[in-house]
Amino acid sequence: MSSAMKLAATDMSDAEWQTRCDLAALYHVVHDLGWTDLINTHMSARIPGEPEHFLINRYGEMFDEVTASSLVKMDLAGNVIGDQGKFNAAGFTIHSGVYKARPDANCVLHTHTRAGAGVSLLRNGLRPISQDALHVLDDVAYHEYGVPTSQEECDALGVTCQKGSCVVLLNHGLLTWGETIHGALMRLYMLERACEVELMARSLDEPPVVIEPYVQERAKARMQKLRGTPEYGLMEFQGLVRTVDRKGAKYRC
């Protein structure tokens, strides 16, 4: 369905439809990267101009089945807006907790990858041992495992997200948030890479080389500046979308 047809049918704003298309594309990108856990993780995006509303996947769909129109629209109180659809209750807890606590968060991503889950077993598990880690290390926060779907967990996650946008959910997995969809994805990509390298290093027979503190500080300053720009991760996201498009992904409907 074209954007014009969709807008005519539902009075949906151009901004919401574009966000739906971008978020649906993100699900296909995550599927292509192999970061899925059947139907049990979730990505969301706040709707521009509607700060109390966000989009999330319809529970039960595989990531390569997600389309712009299948995404569920919710408010921060847990109500489904418009077309009704089943959503993951733990997903609502996670995403609403971040959006309530971080008005600057417009996208939240959550995964259960093997590398992310592996590092989540280690308190303060990431070390300054790779350039991948230096992309995120200054903005990493660790979050204690809580009771899924509870208001307590919703509130606690919001507190943790005040400390950083790259979150290791202990005993669980990874979460990132950003001002843009592409910015949140770039954070997740680098966090995932850092976790992969960390686990590789821990399997070796000798300790890894630690990057000098001076270099760490220079990297921190650079990444804080870079992550604050609207362009952060944009070209990478556009390239990944072109990749899934070439593979025949159908999500703009």
UniProtKB/TrEMBL annotation:
Q: Name one GO molecular function term.
A: actin filament binding
Concerning NCBIfam families, the annotation shows:
PRK07044.1
Q: Which family does the UniProt entry place this protein in? A: Belongs to the aldolase class II family.
Q: Name one GO cellular component term.
A: cytoskeleton
Q: What is this protein called?
A: Class II aldolase/adducin family protein
InterPro entries in the record: Aldolase-II_Adducin_sf, Aldolase_II/adducin_N, Aldolase_II/adducin_N_sf
In terms of PANTHER family, this protein maps to: ADDUCIN, PROTEIN HU-LI TAI SHAO
Matches recorded under Pfam families: Aldolase_II (PF00596)
Q: Look up the domain of life of the source.
A: Bacteria
The UniProt record lists the Class II aldolase/adducin N-terminal domain at 21-199
